[in-house]
Structure formats: C-alpha cells, structure tokens
C-alpha cells in the first residue's frame, strides 16, 4: 500500500479504505440482490403462479436501473463525495428491498420495484466503493482494487446460501427484509471505515486544473474518445461473458452433463471470477492494463470455444473457470482504466458512464441469449458470437494507447504531500 509523508492521516487510512470497500461490496446491491435472485425464484413462482422467466424479470429490471443511473451517480459523487452518496444510496436501497416482502403478484409492480432497487443500489455496487480507492492509491491501485473485490466475491458466495437458509426457515418475504437489514448494517460499518482524501472534491478551478493536467489527459474531444472506447469495450465484454451466467447449467445439461455436475461447473465460474479479480489486480500494476484485459478476454474466448465443443465434465470445468477469469478481470479494470486514462478530475462522472456500459451488457447478453434459445432451442449462435465480442472489446481497449501518466500522478501530491510506497 501507499503512505503520505507529513500527512495528518496515518497509513492505516489506506487499509481502512480497502477493508471498507470490501465490506460494502460484500453486502451491496450485486451480492445481496443480484447474486440471490435465482434463490428466490422457486418460492416466488410457487406463490404467484408465475413462470420462471416472469419471476426472473427482476434481474433484468434492476440491472437496467443500474445502467440508467450510473452516470448520474458518478456526477453526484464528484459533487458531494463518495461516502455521502453511497450511504444515501444504501438507505434507499435497503428500504426498497424490504418492500419486496409486500409484493402481491402484480407483474408491473414487481418490475417497477426491481427497477427502483437497481437505481437506488447503484452506488452500493462497485461503482461507488471502487470510486474511492483511486483517491488513495496510485502505483498499487490494481492490487488495492483486487483485494477489495475479494469482499465482493465472498458476498456473492455467502449471500445466496444465507438466502436459501432464510427462505426455508422464515419464508421469502421475511428473507428479503433480513437481507435488507444486513445490507444497511454493513453499509453503515463501511461508511465509518471509509475516508475521502482532502482536496479531491469541490476544488477551486486552478487547483483542479493543476491536479489533473489537461495538457496530459487531453482536450475534451480526446477525453470523450477515451470514454467511448472504455464504454464500448465494457459493453462488448460484459454482453459476451455475462450472457453465459444464468444459462450455463441448462447449457451443460443439454450437452449431457448431470444436474449436480452442471451446478459444480457454475460454482467454478465464481472461482474463476475470484482468481481473475486478484490476479488482474496484481498484473495491471506491472503490465499495460489493455494488454492484461486482452489476456483475460482471450481466456474467456477459449472458454466459449470449449463450451461449444464440450465432450466431458472435465472440459466443462476448465471452460467455466476460463470464462470466470474474464468476468472477474473486467469488473476490476474499469475503475483502473478510468483513473489512468482520464485522471481524477470528474472521475465519478467518467466512471459512471463506462460502468453503465458494463451494466447494459449485463442486461442485453442474458436476455438476447434467452430469447434466442426460446426460438431455436439452441445456444449455438450466442456461443459463436461471444468470442468475437471479446475480440472487439480487446480492440477498443488497445486503441486507448498510452496512459495519461503525468496527469494521474499529480493527484498523489495533493496539498503538496508526496506519496511514496511503503
């Protein structure tokens, strides 16, 4: 980690921020609502006499809400600070999620509330918590992000199991309320741990311009191009890799894999995600980030090729891990790419925009794959298209070129304080 000489804040602030971000993501929107969505579906289908696709609309609606508000959340973080926006979001998110207990079976109400959950929970996702780490870390930013994302990974493993236990013992309605309480409690703890660096928000115009040299980051048109390239890369990659997640068990069972083995393969996607987050975080501190992205996206493309030609359970395991690696790396890279190419001035706005591309892909990919299967009873075409989408993502990110190095380093000397590695 990194420390600041002569700064009133001790080096523990760096550890506190990583731990706070990890804790917040472990109980945030993605872990509490998205990761548990499938666990609730059987009970909801039974109570409301719905089809599974109808019950699963909550996933798509919430991700759409996340995509719609991400740029706005980014601007609010720039204006009011990350901590305040995240805490406000966590409170509204917990209230909205607890209201799931009062659903009566109206499809319109189900979709509308899910949309609100996605919008209110946006800042409790990686969009909010990973926005604070670039304020504190520079040379080891990738490592800090990777460690923090482990908390998110733990949440996505623990929360579905906890949800299943709660549904069995107290019913799905009360389970939603307990999860909402856990989410709010964890967010409050994260709020107490997190600290924002003095001088990052609401700086005078001259100070803002000096902290991120526009001569190095580039004129508005060039910065706009970089935002577009990161957005497009995130959209293509997430459309490809996230299209697989809800459909993997069914795809494998169609190929003759048993239900229990298919479930194990799906769990290994999670293992791949965890490995991808940690390893990509280590690599981007040493290797050009777009090259790291290409490495992991290539692993995802190989995974899709293996899935198309799968002949054994062992092959399915390898393919699942490879796709998981791509998913995990992409989640880490967006915050890092925004920092190194666009600097800290208006970081929240730019990060919100590129993150909306990732969120939009999480909506488009699974829906398009599901609709194609409903018509053709096959996953062949989506599996063929996915590697080309990953290739397009690589080309977009490689087009970014060199980092805006002088601009991003300036933030590490806010208020004349020099930053050095431990």
Key descriptive features of the protein:
422 residues, mainly alpha, Growth Hormone, Chain: A, two-stranded antiparallel ribbon
Would you mind describing this structure in some detail?
There is one protein chain. The protein is an all-alpha fold. It has helices at residues 12-26, 29-34, 37-48, 52-55, 57-80, 82-98, 107-120, 126-129, 141-170, 172-193, 205-211, 214-217, 220-241, 248-254, 259-284, 289-308, 313-342, 347-376, 380-398, 405-410; strands spanning 2-4, 419-421. It has two domains: 8-202, Growth Hormone, Chain: A (Up-down Bundle), CATH 1.20.1250.20; 203-422, MFS general substrate transporter like domains (Growth Hormone, Chain: A). It contains 20 helices and two strands. A two-stranded antiparallel ribbon has the order 1-2. The chain is globular, with a radius of gyration of 21 Å. The relative contact order is 0.15.
In short:
The protein has helices at residues 12-26, 29-34, 37-48, 52-55, 57-80, 82-98, 107-120, 126-129, 141-170, 172-193, 205-211, 214-217, 220-241, 248-254, 259-284, 289-308, 313-342, 347-376, 380-398, 405-410; strands at residues 2-4, 419-421.
- Helix-strand category: mainly alpha
Order of strands side by side in the largest beta sheet? 1-2
Oligomer: single chain
Tell me the β content.
under 5%
Distance between the termini: 6 Å
Evaluate the radius of gyration. 21 Å
Q: Ranges with pLDDT <50 over ≥5 residues?
A: 1-9, 202-217, 406-422
Q: For the residues shown, what is the average pLDDT? A: 80
Q: Name the shape in a single word.
A: globular
What share of the residues lie within helices?
over 70%
H-E order: EHHHHHHHHHHHHHHHHHHHHE
Number of domain units: 2
Q: Which homologous superfamily in CATH is the superfamily of the largest domain?
A: MFS general substrate transporter like domains
Count of DSSP H/I helices: 20
CATH fold-level topology of the largest domain: Growth Hormone, Chain: A
CATH architecture of the largest domain: Up-down Bundle
Say how many strands there are. 2
CATH class assignment of the largest domain: Mainly Alpha
Largest sheet: 2 strands, antiparallel
